[in-house]
Design a protein that fits this description.
The complex is a heterodimer of chains A (224) and B (262). Chain A has one domain: 3-Layer(aba) Sandwich (Rossmann fold), CATH 3.40.50.300. In chain A, 34% of the residues lie in helices and 25% in strands. In chain A, the strands form 2 sheets. In chain A, strands 6-7-8-3-9-10 form a 6-stranded mixed beta sheet, with helices on both faces. In chain A, strands 2-1-4-5 form a 4-stranded antiparallel beta sheet, covered by helices on one side. In chain A, strand 4 and strand 5 form a beta hairpin. In chain A, 46% of the residues are buried. By secondary structure, chain B is mostly helical. Chain B starts with 5 loop residues before the first helix and ends in a 19-residue tail after the last helix. Classes of the chains: A alpha/beta (224), B mainly alpha (262). Chains A and B meet through helix 2 and helix 5 of A and helix 6 of B.
Chain lengths: 224, 262
Amino acid sequence: MPAGEPLFAFESVSVGPSEARRLHDLHAQLPDGGLTVVGGPSGSGKSTLLRLCNRLEVPSEGVVRHRGEDITQRGPLTLRREVAMVFQRPVTFAGTVLDNLREAERSCDEERGGELLERVGLPPSFLARDAGELSGGEAQRACLARSLATNPRVMLMDEPTSALDAKAAEVLERLAQQLVADGTPVIWVTHSEDQMCRLADHLLLLVGGRVDRAGSAQEVLDGG
Amino acid sequence: MEGDVGYVGLAISLVLVAVAVGFSLRLRLRLEREMVVSVTRGFLQLLVVGAALGLIIDPDTPLIWSWLWVAGIVVFAAATVRRRAPAVPGLFWIALVANGATAVVGFAVAFGLGIFPVEGRTLVPIAGMLVGNAMKSAIVGAERLVDALSEQRAEVEARLALGQPSMKAARPIVRSVLRTALSPQIENTKGLGLVFLPGAMTGLILAGVDPADAVLVQLAIMYLILGGTATTSVITVLGSVRRLFTSDHRLVALPRSTRDVG
């Protein structure tokens, strides 16, 4: 892996049929470290860009690189375990929280499960809880713990607080910052300017499927 | 009783169709046109089939015509499944293999083990019963699979995002879809004799066959149908789910669930 390569680079990337592009000839780089916020209004292509990073979406044109390597050269299953994702709405699977963790790591025992829950601020007693009966905030944290079970090197978070109340949102923001402090870069999608200002080390603002502004949070916010 | 209905009797039985149309009008179900079309179409189709069957079961008619008829049943069933779930790419061929497999396995048991003699009068009706019932479950399976993957896209993508291969990510949905597709036939088999007396057995008894023999024939047919339904549903659903994911484990774009329409 070449040193100094961006975490993700988008080279002439377009997504969607030519008459209804969701991203248009996009050129952008996301730095390898810190918390990068991808912002912009609804329909600006933020989530599409995020989904390109773990190959849940593929470009119609152009190349996406992960630390310098064209991601089509990586097996999608390995890539997705390295580049984990938390979705807008918490999606828990049937069964207990431990069952959910085992969907990500088959050999997950109670000790490992307890460690994962601890990282998201939930007590080990939650392992036996029915995942379908958790509150929105608890479920989103359980989903984050499930994503962490694959030992990811990057965390993608697609408007993870949009379905949560203010207090639960604050907890999740803190957890994302903790991940960054522990050395896992986070890419966080949001349309909330307040959240951008609170969280971003780097910013990429999209409008209409194109880059509007990009750079360090200070540069972009001061220039805005 | 000689089973001699006649056209007058048939016309009288239409009273029940009128009752169904009346319900549809009264409850504004908008099904009356479809009911009339289906009754007319069924009438014409069965008249033609009745005449053709008369020719086929004639002992002087070469057996090849019966086999061609069976092939037609398999192809028509595949086309019907394909029409009902157009979102699945290549569903015609999947359903053709599924129905063909059911016919081959069913015939191997029914004729290979000597349960029935290989004659025009057995080939075509048994293929019709086997493939017809299997087709119904294949349609339920294919339709429900597309609906469930569309409705539960978020769950499937959450599993894919954990690095699960597409077939593993779809497994809970596939299980639930197959249970839905197979349940009616299992219930039918459970209810044998208690809820309904199946046609083949009733017909044989009416024709003077010993009820104990008639029961054995009917049981053989029901078991064949249950096996055929399972074979067709499993091949159709597993074949379809493979076509609804790309080779790099992404769920293809699907129409919004037909259950959402309202």
